[in-house]
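[Q] Does anyone have a clean structure-token version of this?
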Amino acid sequence: MKILIVSQGPDGGGIHKSLTTLLARLADMENVEADVLLWRKPPSIPEEIVYTRNITSLEGLHGVKSFANCSSAGDFLRYGLFRALRPAGMETLCFHKPSKSYDIAIAYSQMGYSPHYVIDKVKAAKKILFFHHGSYDYSGYRRRLDAAYFKRFDRIATMSRANAEMLSTHFPGISNKISIVGNFINVDNILKLGQEKIAENASDTPVLTTVARLSPEKGIAKALDAALILKKKGYHFRWTFIGDGPSRNDCEAFISANGLDNECRIAGFKANPYAYIAASDIYVQPSEVESYSLTIREAALFRKTIVATSIPAIEEARDEINGLITTAPTPESLADTLAGLLDNIEDVREGRYSASYSSEPNIKSERQVKDLLGI
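[A] Here you go.
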């Protein structure tokens, strides 16, 4: 079986982590040849993405040089075509085609070039879109363009029931193509990385951790508001935020302006966030939008006390995770829930409120790969 996976490239986010686990699973399958096309391939592949056995990366299919690097009439023609098609969201029409044909081609995100490239340029018996986002916020031309491309896929895989229902609401014409696959978790690798020692657990101060992209939908501003409420009530804690994104400057400014420097820290992107999760007393996920919430499931592997906002995709996680604590999506409610746990921090550390899986996640992940491929 020949498979092509088209993705934006490793960035440390949920799609990146999902892709690495899928690649590891495919490497263990017999009679599978998988090619990976990364649009944003870094100078060197991050260590945690290892293309083993029959997994390789493809390069050079973009085919469009910058204006300054154009040296022939063909270069200038392709550059001009790219610029002309870009406002319509159809610039992939001027990209090169892969030299191979495939049994299955997967657009590993609904964003960027991936969906259009798989439809317009890849020859495959089956084409699958993996929709990774918890909301759909486009209208007008972009919505019509997405509808036109989405319906050309044979299947659209989603992360959760909430994700599938949201997509069906926006695009009722493709509801018969939507299936729920979930996300992939590499249990052994996560637990191994969690053994790395860091300074977070060096003192007796309660440690809270959040791993998320620093963007509005992840609720980081709400978490910082909750932290300020807790500080004003006299609570002592250390809350580390792992991740980066467009809201980072605003978050750091809020911390500084409100004297939260001793309580909150924006640590930025970390290649190994699991060491921070493992070293924490409480894992907090304050998201306002999620398609699946992979980090909650990762935190549950370490049997951490988990507090998360009550949104559909997170409530759905109760099907897999016992002991998940949810709260209303307001700073006040989040602060009240955390205050109750901080008041009983010894019980937290003894595991009284720990979350755990109701079934073996490694086995589930293997089944999800087959569900994604339809085999």
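[Q] Thanks! Anything notable?
[A] Residues 27 and 52 are 6 Å apart (CA to CA).
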